[in-house]
Design a protein that fits this description.
5 helices; Glucose Permease (Domain IIA); M23ase_b-sheet_dom; 10-stranded antiparallel β-sheet; hydrolase activity; signal; alpha+beta; disordered N terminus; EC 3.4.24.-
Length: 255
């Protein structure tokens, strides 16, 4: 009788072990169990990361759709004897066309300054500023201290200062020093470290001879004297190609 009871106990123990093992097999989830839910959430998190935040700084165009007619770099104007740094880019546009802020910032200056004529300056993150010159006018509400968003109209195209026709002169400055604007326009930068400041400081040694359609009134006497001097040096009174173009521009300016 005792041996029968022992045998019955052994059977019950074996059945219990099998039941526990069966419950532990993968893929077998009993009613009310939810062990798989955390795994699904974890995979979903890995497959769908949180979207990145806004860029540190994003630049647009000051006069959308208009081309740069005079780039950054060493340039020699017709009335000059030597090349000098053109500290920005010139963008041709019709007088009165809107000038837009190229990036988010704060107005830090506006007024009239010598050869620049009417100007406005906007400070941006990262120690950069954008400077807009030869303007016809600055929007009245754009006072110093006003915050502006990229794409906000801040001024109008003009022909002020030492200018050869209606256009915008745009500079990007780093700590007050001009750098190449072309490396910033229509670009987005995730962090301050992504700003191409060092590259933008590079100046090619090549001097570009600029051609103009008109001569500014303040430079016409100087231009006439330079043409006369060049004719005197040549027995036949001939001018080099660049001065012949400048002579035509001078004649158009006087008309």
């Amino acid at each position: 009788m005792s041996w029968a009871l022992a045998l019955l106990g052994a059977c019950i123990l074996a059945l219990a072990v099998i039941a526990v093992a069966h419950a532990a097999l993968p893929g077998e989830i009993g009613p009310g169990q939810a062990q798989a839910a955390p795994m699904v959430e974890e995979i979903a998190d890995e497959a769908s990361p949180e979207p990145e935040g806004p860029p540190f700084l994003a630049f647009g165009e000051p006069v959308p759709g208009r081309k740069i007619i005079s780039p950054w770099g060493l340039r020699k104007l017709p009335w000059e004897d030597h090349g000098r740094l053109h500290e920005g880019v010139d963008i041709a546009a019709d007088a009165g066309a809107k000038v837009l802020a190229v990036a988010d910032g704060v107005v830090v200056g506006r007024g009239v300054a010598g050869g620049y004529g009417t100007y406005i300056e906007v400070k941006h993150p990262g120690g950069l500023t954008s400077f807009y010159a030869h303007l016809g006018s600055v929007e009245r509400k754009m006072r110093v201290g006003r915050a502006v968003a990229a794409g906000t109209p801040i001024a109008r195209i003009g022909n002020g200062g030492t200018s050869t026709g209606p256009h915008l002169h745009l500079e990007i400055r780093n700590g007050g020093d001009p750098i190449n604007p072309i490396l910033f326009l229509n670009r987005r930068f995730a962090t301050a470290d992504d700003l191409p400041v060092e590259m933008a400081e590079t100046v090619s040694p090549r001097v570009r001879l600029a051609t103009v359609s008109t001569i500014p009134e303040s430079k016409r006497a100087l231009m006439a004297a330079k043409i006369a001097k060049a004719k005197a040096k040549n027995r036949r009174g001939r001018l080099p190609p660049d001065l012949r173009l400048a002579q035509l521009a001078l004649q158009r300016s006087a008309d």
